[in-house]
Amino acid sequence: MEKINVLVVDDHKIVRDGILSLLQDEDEISVIAQAENGKDALEKIPKVSPQLVLMDINMPVMNGIDCTREITRIYPEVKVLALTMLNELEHIKNMLGAGAKGYLLKSSGKEELVMAIKKVMSGQNYFSDEVKDLIMLEMVKKKTSPGKIIGEKVPLTSRELDILELILQELTNQEIAEKLFISVRTVDAHRRNLLEKTGARNTAGLVKFALENHLFGN
Q1: Which residues contact 144 (CB under 8 A, 6 or more apart)?
Q2: Class of CATH domain 158-217
Q3: pLDDT tens digits, residue range 13-50?
Q4: Cα-flanking dihedrals φ and ψ of residue 15, to 5°?
Q5: SS (H, E, C) 67-120
Q6: Which CATH architecture has domain 4-136?
Q7: What DSSP designation does 51 have?
Q8: Residues 6+ apart with CB under 8 A from 159
Q9: What's this model's pTM, rounded to 2 decimal places?
Q10: Spatial CB neighbours of 210, under 8 Å, sequence gap ≥ 6
Q11: SS3 assignment, position 127
């Protein structure tokens, strides 16, 4: 029986070694390589030819979302399964939008990990139960809310609030990236999420949103 060749991408060696240990006795799965960030993964894919990539999200140099987007573009035959601690809807949407075929939390056990790998390789999507609940809740909210309710509280993450505050200070994306020690691409992604969540069309709309919601002591 031909094994599923897997590349594990995570910036923590102990996590990579743990996944290798979990899967080493599986007859149908073989971990053929490891990478410590997205850039490292992109360099290794043409050398080791994985069929599936287990992808963490928060990593230095290149994060899992940007890496997944590049894999989908350059190696469309390679499947990506997110394996992360992050269970926020924002990260789920970004990973799926980048081309991931599944989203698994690191709290999952070995049986679920093996099942997720096999399902994704068979052409199906796979989501942890907690992730499925978040997706369903979002679908229900979209169905029952035709538009933004006036006075409705828009849940922003602490990172989005940090970036919104710097936008209000008229910093450029490059300046924000340098101040927060993140990439300009990450700032761009957060800015898009802010526009989507607040319903604003531009920076002026974000300023108006912050004022109307009394953010940052305004």
Answers
A1: none
A2: mainly alpha
A3: 999 999 999 999 999 999 999 999 999 999 999 999 99
A4: -70, -45
A5: HHHHHHHHCCCCEEEEEECCCCHHHHHHHHHHCCCEEEECCCCHHHHHHHHHHH
A6: 3-Layer(aba) Sandwich (3.40)
A7: S
A8: 190
A9: 0.65
A10: 164, 168, 216, 218
A11: strand
